[in-house]
Amino acid sequence: MRQSPYRREKKSLNAEMNVVPYIDVMLVLLVIFMVTAPLLITGVDVDLPKEQTNTMSQSQLPIIVSLTASGELFISYENNIDMPISEPELINTLSNLQTQNSNTGKPPVQVIINADQNNQYGAIMTLMASLQQAGIEKVGLLTGAPLPTPSL
Questions:
Q1: Number of domains comprising the chain
Q2: 31 falls within a domain
Q3: Residues 6 or more apart whose Cβ sits within 8 Å of residue 12
Q4: Which of 3-17, 18-32, 132-146 has the highest mean pLDDT?
């Protein structure tokens, strides 16, 4: 029997992935990051505003870690109020409290940083890194009341 002239020839399937569109997308993303990266590096002096903010959940009293302008650390939790503490002791204490809470089924430890406004940014970031080492996930920053707005 003769084959029909209208019959299609069956070709084998091409199982290779077409990566050209992915390369195009990656090149566009690379250009975007190259353009925006210099903007992220430069800093601008800002005077942060004082505003009313939401408070942390009150199901458990937070631990307050105070950092003075001279770099001294103090911790307040449960019946211990403003105890002087070193950074390694702080990490151990917070790790122990976090472990106790997880073993008893309590929510994770909440920490509030009470830092003097004259502290260097690096000192506060070092403190936050120490809190992260201790396994603390919820950290807040304690602020003063907002300044009243002048009436005109």
A1: 1
A2: no
A3: none
A4: 18-32
Domain residue limits at 122: 63-141
- Say how far apart CA 67 and CA 116 lie, in whole Å: 6
- Is residue 28 one of the residues assigned to a domain? no
Q: Looking at the domain assignment, is residue 94 inside a domain?
A: yes
Residues 6+ apart with CB under 8 A from 137: 108
Alpha-carbon dihedral sign for residues 79, 83, 87, 92: negative
With respect to residue 18, please indicate whether it lies within any of the assigned structural domains: no
Q: Tokens standing for 93?
A: 């204490």
Q: What pTM was computed for the model? A: 0.55
The CATH number given to whatever domain includes residue 121 is 3.30.420.270
How many Å separate Cα 8 from the centre of its chain?
A: 60
Read off the pLDDT of residues 12-61 as tens digits, 9 standing for 90 and up.
887 888 888 899 999 999 999 888 887 765 544 544 446 666 654 555 67
For residue range 100-109, list pLDDT tens digits in order: 888 887 888 8
Segment holding 90, helix H or strand E: helix 87-104
Tell me whether residue 131 is exposed, middle or buried, using C-beta atoms within 10 angstroms of its C-beta: 0 to 12, 13 to 18, 19 or more. Answer: buried
